[in-house]
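User: Can you write out an input/output pair for a complex, sequences first and structure second?

Assistant: Here is one pair. Inputs:
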Amino acid sequence: MDFSWTDEQEIWRKTVRDFAQKKIKPRVREIDTNKKIPKEIIKEMGKLGLLAPTASQKYGGSGVDWTMASIAAEELGRADISLAVPVLYLVEAAWGFILSQYGTDEVKSEYLPKITSGEAFCGIAVTEPEGGSDIVGAAKTTAMKKGKNWILNGEKIFISGITESSNWGGVHLTLARTDPSKAHKGFSFFAVPLKDNQNIETTLFEDMGRMGISTGGFKMDNVELPKYHLIGKLDRGFYYAMEGFSAARILIGATCVGASEAALDLGIDHIKTRNAFGRPLGSFEGIQFPLAEHYCNIDAIKLQTYRAAWTIDKMYRGKKCTHHDVAIAAAISKLRAPIYAFGVMNEVADWLGALGYTKEYPIEMGIRGVRSYSIGAEGTMNIMRIIISRELLGKKFLPYK
Ligand SMILES: Cc1cc2nc3c(=O)[nH]c(=O)nc-3n(C[C@H](O)[C@H](O)[C@H](O)COP(=O)(O)OP(=O)(O)OC[C@H]3O[C@@H](n4cnc5c(N)ncnc54)[C@H](O)[C@@H]3O)c2cc1C
């Protein structure tokens, strides 16, 4: 066992950290207030290879593995604890990868170079109005063959990047039923462009946090797609979705690690310098004990998250680890990381006293942002618990057939 980073990983971390601390961190409040990530930041991320970095180099990606992708996620989380930039990063890293792995050459050539350079967006559209956790039971969206093309009808909701995709262009990888008789084995994945599509009506939600990236929905009314927009094999969409979710959950873990470390550093600076009763706050055990607890939690989620990244890297290199190993490792990270991140941010807000309740400090942005992940983006906490329990008890004990 070796817990050290390679030279390549250290150089990559330093490159991303230097960029993120200099170009993103000073603008996080502006991003949160203006509800958008400045395009020059996106373009610079593209130049550094930070947009869909896991996509193949042939289509403009950096072809990095998931450990490298997690290092970048951690550094982006450290710089932007509102989590807007990290969300954009991780959604594109996970779903740009699926597009790169399974998309046709035509769809990849058309969209990936624009996604990796920051001209277009790549998102994921699974959730529907009747439910996200039980998508197999809830999904109404259909895709039917018409000649050589596909016709999609249905509605997707709570989808990240609706404004980005509608304005910049790009695609949302969209899950639709292609064989209603087959439950989860009857879904396929399609690359759906939202921009300038007369047959798509978009909506937006006013979110609690991570304001720099939009959340909304879209209705498809006879949306016609050329056949090359089918991602991978017919009726395999559910499996591609699960593959992408596992990857995304690992990056969420890494993002939360970075944001937690940033929050704890901020708290440490404060308790070292703020005095009460003639002593620094940090000299009271009532402050030190939670400090030690939060430090241990962050250390634990960091280890769990990079173990998950290691597991997925092993799987893609064909070495022992399976999709099940990845799913469970990713679920552990996703279950713990947002909760611990929320916990440390909440604690630091307490240490700051009244300042913690103001917009003078970024903590409130972190608390609002990280809640998206403990509520449910990329799968709710209970769904993570179900994935873990399924591994422990076997499929017979699943709460559904
Ligand atoms: C900020 C944000 C961004 C998002 N972005 C995207 C996106 O880009 N693309 C996308 O497809 N989706 C996205 N989502 C949707 C997300 O995937 C869903 O919210 C999630 O899957 C839960 O679905 P739901 O909201 O319909 O809640 P429900 O499925 O209705 O669940 C409600 C509650 O019931 C619990 N529950 C459900 N089933 C069980 C069970 N069997 N046992 C115990 N408890 C259970 C859940 O854990 C949850 O607490 C986003 C969500 C958020 C908050």
